[in-house]
Specification:
The complex is a heterotrimer. By secondary structure, chain A is an alpha+beta fold. Chain A has one domain: Fe-S cluster assembly (FSCA) (GMP Synthetase, Chain A, domain 3). Chain A is 35% helix and 10% strand. A 3-stranded mixed sheet of chain A has the order 1-2-3. In chain A, β2, α3 and β3 (107-112) form a beta-alpha-beta unit. The two termini of chain A are 21 Å apart. Chain B has helices at residues 6-10, 19-22, 64-68, 75-84, 87-102, 118-127, 133-147, 156-175, 190-204, 214-230, 247-252, 273-283, 320-333, 371-382, 415-427, 437-447, 453-459; strands spanning 37-40, 46-50, 53-56, 111-116, 151-154, 184-185, 237-243, 258-259, 264-265, 269-272, 343-344, 350-357, 360-369, 390-394. In chain B, α6 (118-127) packs across α7, α8 (156-175) crosses α10 and α8 crosses α13 (320-333). The chains are: A alpha+beta, B alpha/beta, C mainly beta. Chains A and B meet through α3, α4, α5 and α6 of A and β1 of B.
Chain lengths: 156, 477, 337
């Protein structure tokens, strides 16, 4: 399989989050914020490049919104090229990582940053279909790739 | 484009992404320069912007043969067909050839041969309201000749050969059931063959007759026998067929029908009945306006047949079941049957006929048309419950007369009504005796006898199970 | 004041998502299925619902849907493993006696015709299959493969009185089919277009002249059938009845609506929503055939996660069954039925 985007732009990673004393305090009610969501998914690997979605600017913290009143988390991602055929796979990886990491009360939506992909609507619709997502994760070959994408770098 | 038969549409079909994105065929891509940016234009083309300015990116071309060899979508093959096998392509080749003829560029001139199937002729005769199919055929031949076609042929000789080969193959299989599995399944429908290769692979392929379809037998005859007669190299002949279904385009594109030694494809281009209608529409003319001309019969210089258009037994799909049944009854059981009595199963597109003696079934044949009956047949085979010796399988309901690329009914007529009328017309045609002098002659003089190595090689083919591709990056979900 | 919709019992035995549950025609039994690849059979024991059987050897992947035959002697299950299994009810036990193969990938829904002559299935492969049933469910012949939807088909249901089939799809449409007696093939007689996203489920009312649909576009729509020669003067091309959307319920649901059930006894409509709620709608007294009005009676936070299915009991008015991603099955009593 040839790479579609041979030489993508690579960006600097953001700094590590400074963990405050308050965050270690179990008794304190601590709603999830965008930064925490970002930390969960920033290290997901691109299926094609040995780079993370953060380094490729596929994911950015300011494209994540969290509504704790409605338990809604919305993540927008930006494919590196507008006809990227990996976009559904990247979206699936993000969604799976969040489903596995966040409390089940959250309603998670993963979608393409508007105007950045030729098949934006089709991909968004597929990523929003929970039945298709569930079925896809029973495909062992596909699951293996998703697991590789979301495995943290140190485990590879 | 009306599209392939239902059988193909179901096979590994894909989801919503367009063919260009769906295609998982790995291709070479030239490395782009660092620092370039790609933008999409309103017309869907891609522009690469570099420091040196912007440049339109080339689209990757996928050939039809690539599609056939791939376990991915078949639907994107449709897009490929439009460019590789179309009326536009035929007209382009004809124009180039006419130019070359005018300019006396002898090295560029090709002989253009068109072979028209009976099913298409019936469809065209009906569409242009010509009661006699023979008359319609002559007008059509006139149209092709006017376009610059050198030879206009019908498929009769190939239909005859296909029946003889299938019949002999059946007897061979029946008499050696240790080596061969029964039932023998018909092989002339490319939709069915393609579905079997992609979906049921090695389970079903051994049952399928190796006899080539009439289209591909015609391909051999034109590119080898006719070439020999005309003293031409095969690649100096451009062979077009006119067929009742789109799936025939896929068949012509199979690697098995590309002759490496001759560097030539047996059938270069397939167009369909409905495309003939479109060509005439573009010309703004009715078929009747073209002067009548005879079909060519290069197979016998001395005597041409009194008719060009012939029927073959009962079914409009070639009459395989009837012809083989009658022959088998004669050869294997030394009996004669004139009329076969078919019994309809659950629907009229699945029927069977048996030869019984003292309450014992000696021979059991069936005709299974349409995708639902292909399913029922496959399920019966899987449960080893069929009991059939031969099945004529066609992907379209009612068989080839109702092929997916036949001309649509006019004036709100129902499709089924039209098919009934075509069947009636078909039955009124003179009946061909497949084992006739011209066929014998071809066997003797060209193939070196029946069952010769040459006839085995050129009149039979192979099937290939398509392995499911498990490239995880491209799994459709 | 008691809640209008009260939980009677919560059954937490499935592991993972419970995709669907469906009643036995007697209303005294139901089957549930889900991600754990099992079917569970539940029966009523005095006031409690207890599990009578676990069927765990039928499928290799998620079981998406289950349905009892009208005669009550057979159960069909549809799975992501691309097959449909037919189970014979032998007293309290169930035996898998046939497996229907043919779909290319995930089977999403299965339904028995009321006449007992047909079974319908649908799949992500975009096709709807009609299977003809012969001799006491011994054989299933493929009567039709309908490739008319452009996408994934989510749901198939049968008309309550006739052999008329309806299907709902990811392509945003609903299609109606019937058998063509001339060659026993099936033809599409109507395509219902109005939803802006996936139609997840559909339900006929008790007469079969109305259809309710629920969608990813967060709306419910009510469709009315107009026969050939209808008094409203609505044109019916091809001499087939047409279906018109006569009512859209929007603004009630906050997320995708996954299932809808139209009670044949009370006329109440229940919906299962991705916002974890169940809602009950009742037709208003001022409602008319051509301009129906439905009002929401109640809305309740029913589960901890998405509600996947709701089904009114065919025998006890007001008894409702729901299943959810949270792994629970719940039985509800609607007090104002």
């Amino acid at each position: 399989m040839e790479l579609e985007n041979i030489n993508p732009n690579v960006f600097k990673k953001s700094d590590e989050r400074i963990i405050t004393e308050k965050e270690w305090d179990e008794s304190c009610i601590d709603p999830i914020d965008a930064r925490e969501v970002f930390d969960l998914i920033r290290s997901i690997n691109d299926p094609e490049h040995p780079l993370t979605l953060e380094e490729l600017h596929v994911l950015e913290e300011n494209h994540i919104t969290v509504d704790n009143d409605k338990n809604e988390i919305r993540v927008l991602f930006t494919p590196t090229i507008p006809h990227c055929s990996m976009a559904t796979l990247i979206g699936l990886s993000i969604r799976v990582k969040l489903l596995r990491s966040l409390p089940s009360r959250y309603k998670i939506s993963v979608a393409i940053t508007p105007g950045t992909h030729t098949s934006e609507n089709a991909i968004n619709k597929q990523l929003a279909d929970k039945e298709r997502i569930s079925a896809s994760l029973e495909n062992s070959t596909l699951l293996e790739v998703v697991n590789q994408c979301i495995a943290s770098r140190s485990n590879r | 484009m009306a599209g392939f038969s239902g059988a193909l549409k179901l096979t590994n079909l894909d989801d919503f992404i367009t063919p260009s994105q769906e295609c998982i065929k790995p291709v070479d891509i030239k490395k782009s320069k660092t620092g370039s940016k790609i933008t999409i234009q309103d017309d869907g083309t891609y522009l690469e912007e570099t420091k040196l300015g912007s440049q339109k990116l080339q689209k990757v071309e996928i050939t039809l043969a690539d599609c056939l060899a791939c376990s991915g979508c078949i639907t994107s093959a449709e897009g490929v067909l439009i460019t590789q096998q179309s009326q536009e392509e035929v007209l382009r080749i004809l124009n180039e050839n006419n130019q070359a003829k005018q300019n006396n560029e002898n090295d560029k001139i090709k002989k253009i041969v068109v072979t028209v199937s009976q099913q298409s002729l019936l469809s065209i005769a009906k569409r242009y309201e010509l009661d006699s199919v023979e008359t319609a055929a002559k007008h059509l031949a006139g149209y092709f000749k006017k376009l610059g076609v050198d030879y206009v042929l019908d498929t009769k000789i190939a239909d005859d050969l296909a029946l003889i080969e299938a019949r002999d193959e059946f007897i061979k299989r029946f008499q050696d059931q240790k080596t061969f599995k029964l039932p023998m399944l018909a092989s002339s429908c490319p939709g069915w063959v393609c579905y079997a290769e992609k979906t049921h692979g090695n389970f079903i392929l051994p049952y399928i007759s190796t006899t080539r379809s009439p289209q591909q037998i015609m391909g051999v005859l034109v590119k080898e026998l006719l070439a020999q007669k005309l003293n031409l190299k095969a690649d100096k002949i451009y062979h077009v067929t006119v067929m009742p279904c789109y799936d025939k385009k896929l068949e012509a594109s199979r690697e098995d029908f590309y002759n490496e030694a001759l560097q030539s494809r047996d059938v270069d281009c397939v167009i369909t009945s409905i495309e003939i209608e479109q060509m005439l529409m573009t010309e703004g003319k009715d078929l009747k306006e073209f002067e009548m001309s005879n079909f060519d019969w290069p197979w016998n210089q001395i005597k041409t047949p009194e008719n060009f258009i012939w029927a073959h037994e009962l079914s409009g799909s070639g009459g395989y079941a009837d012809f083989i049944f009658k022959h088998a009854v004669k050869v294997l059981f030394n009996q004669d049957v004139s009329e076969l009595e078919y019994k309809n199963l659950r629907n009229p597109d699945f029927k069977e006929v048996t030869l019984e003696k003292d309450g014992q079934v000696l021979l059991k044949f069936a005709i299974a048309n349409g995708f639902r009956n292909i399913q029922n047949l496959v399920q019966k085979l899987k449960r080893s419950k069929s009991g059939y010796h031969y099945v004529e399988v066609m992907a379209c309901p009612s068989g080839c007369l109702n092929g997916g690329a036949q001309i649509r009914p006019q004036n709100n007529q129902q499709q089924k009504e039209l098919t009934r009328e075509l069947e009636e017309m078909y039955r009124s045609l003179p009946k061909s005796l497949p084992y006739n002098d011209d066929v014998k002659n071809i066997y003797d003089e060209f193939f070196g006898g029946n069952d010769s190595d040459k006839s085995q090689k050129l009149l039979h083919t192979n099937y290939h199970a398509v392995e499911k591709m498990n490239t995880a990056l491209n799994i459709k979900w | 004041m008691p809640q209008q919709l009260e939980v009677i019992q919560k059954l937490s035995v499935h592991r993972g998502k419970v995709w669907s549950a469906n009643w036995h025609p007697s209303g005294k039994m139901f089957a549930s299925c889900g991600e754990d690849k099992t079917i569970r059979i539940w029966v009523q024991d005095k006031d409690d619902w207890i599990m009578q059987a676990v069927l765990s050897d039928g499928h290799s992947r998620t079981i998406r849907d289950v349905a009892f035959s009208t005669c009550g002697n057979f159960l069909a299950s549809a799975s992501f493993d691309a097959t449909v299994s037919i189970w014979d009810k032998k007293g309290a036990a169930f035996e898998c006696n046939s497996t229907l193969e043919g779909h290319e990938n995930e089977v999403k829904s299965v339904a028995w015709s009321v006449s007992g002559n047909f079974l319908a299935t649908c799949s992500r492969d975009k096709s709807v299959w009609v299977w003809e049933i012969t001799q006491n469910c011994e054989e299933f012949d493929c009567a039709a493969v309908l490739n008319l939807h452009k996408q994934d088909v989510k749901k198939v249901i049968w008309h309550p009185h006739q052999d008329i089939l309806a299907s709902a799809s990811y392509d945003n449409t609903i299609k109606i089919y019937k058998e063509d007696p001339s060659d026993n093939d099936w033809i599409c007689t109507a395509t219902l277009e109005s939803h802006n996203s996936t139609v997840w489920s559909i339900a006929f009312d008790k007469t079969g002249t109305r259809l309710a649909s629920c969608s990813d576009d967060c709306t419910i729509k009510i469709w009315q059938q107009y026969e050939v020669g209808n008094e409203e003067g609505i044109i019916t091309p091809d001499n087939e009845p047409v279906w018109k959307c006569v009512c859209t319920l929007s603004g009630y649901h906050d997320r995708s609506v996954y299932d809808i059930s139209w009670c044949k006894q009370t006329g109440l409509i229940a919906t299962a929503c991705g916002d974890d709620h169940i809602r009950i709608f009742r037709e208003s007294e001022t409602s008319t055939k051509n301009e129906p009005i439905f009002e929401m009676e109640t809305k309740i936070l029913a589960h901890k996660q998405d509600v996947n299915s709701v089904k009114w009991c065919p025998s006890t008015p007001g008894l409702l069954l729901s299943t959810s991603d949270d792994g629970d099955i719940k039985l509800w009593k609607f007090n104002n039925a």
